[in-house]
């Protein structure tokens, strides 16, 4: 990875990074297994991509810069790989739409546990999956070329109907192998530990 790409990936200068397709397909399989929902493999599992463009959308319906997902309602099964310069706003939106409208939201974000967004909002999710290794993001104009991200990632699931909350270490490449770190009530100890670092 050249220095310019590294700088842009770690900054807010360019926000249209595309979700790696193999990873997205692993998420679809996970959601089908987890929720027992029908999926024929031909049409996208997710009904809405809440932060996308016509070039990189992962659902038939999508919200873009022109029609912001931050002001529209989210319904059904929602995928969101948000622009990271608006991460806190999208995380809050995902939580609210799940609680108020029952949206099932899968949010892909940097695993920056020291941030206010992670500690104040992401910690309320039904499930947090810390992803092994670095994902390789692309831009549509790069024609498939990709480089590993400069940050670790987490898949965050907001589901108001979840009976408990879980934190999982997930090796999505190895057949979805996972190690459950803890579930409730131990997760409350984890969250308290995160909150204790807030200045």
Between the first and last Cα atoms, what is the distance in angstroms? 35 Å
Low-pLDDT residue intervals, each spanning 5 or more residues? 1-14
The count of helical stretches stands at 5
Structural class: alpha/beta
Biggest sheet character: 8 strands, mixed
Instruction: Write the element-wise H/E pattern from the N-terminal end onward.
Output: HHEEEHEHEEEEEEH
The CATH architecture comes to: 3-Layer(aba) Sandwich
Description:
It is a single chain. With 199 residues, the protein is of the alpha/beta class. The protein has one domain (3-195): Rossmann fold, CATH 3.40.50. 26% of the residues lie in helices and 22% in strands. The protein is built from five helices and ten strands. The protein has an eight-stranded mixed beta sheet. Strand 9 and strand 10 (177-183) form a beta hairpin. The longest helix has 15 residues, at 21-35. It is globular, with a radius of gyration of 16 Å. The model is unreliable at 1-14 (pLDDT under 50).
Which key phrases capture this entry?
199 residues; Rossmann fold; 22% strand; 26% helix; alpha/beta; eight-stranded mixed sheet
Topology of helices and strands:
Blueprint: H1 3-9, H2 21-35, E1 48-49, E2 61-62, E3 77-80, H3 87-101, E4 104-110, H4 116-120, E5 127-131, E6 136-137, E7 147-148, E8 153-158, E9 166-171, E10 177-183, H5 186-195
Parallel strand pairs: 1-2, 1-3, 3-4, 5-9
Antiparallel strand pairs: 4-8, 5-8, 6-7, 9-10
In short:
This protein has an eight-stranded mixed beta sheet. The chain has a single domain, classed as Rossmann fold (3-Layer(aba) Sandwich), CATH 3.40.50. The protein has 199 residues and is α/β, with parallel strands linked by helices.
């Amino acid at each position: 990875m050249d220095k310019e790409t590294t700088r842009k990936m770690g900054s807010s200068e360019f926000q249209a990074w595309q979700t790696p397709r193999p990873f997205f397909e692993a998420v679809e399989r996970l959601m089908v297994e987890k929720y027992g929902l029908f999926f024929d493999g031909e049409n996208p599992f997710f009904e809405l991509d809440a932060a996308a463009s016509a070039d990189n959308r992962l659902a038939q319906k999508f919200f873009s810069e022109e029609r912001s997902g931050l002001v529209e309602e989210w319904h059904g099964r929602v995928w969101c790989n948000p622009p990271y310069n608006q991460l806190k706003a999208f995380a809050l939106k995902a939580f609210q739409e799940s609680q108020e409208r029952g949206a099932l939201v899968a949010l892909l974000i940097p695993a920056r546990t020291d941030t206010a967004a992670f500690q104040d909002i992401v910690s309320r999710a039904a499930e947090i999956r810390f992803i092994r290794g670095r994902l390789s993001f692309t831009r549509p104009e790069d024609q498939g070329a990709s480089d590993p991200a400069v940050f670790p990632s987490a898949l965050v699931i907001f589901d108001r109907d979840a009976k408990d909350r879980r934190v999982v270490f997930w090796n999505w490449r190895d057949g979805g192998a996972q190690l459950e770190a803890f579930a409730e009530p131990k997760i409350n100890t984890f969250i308290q530990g995160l909150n204790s670092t807030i200045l």
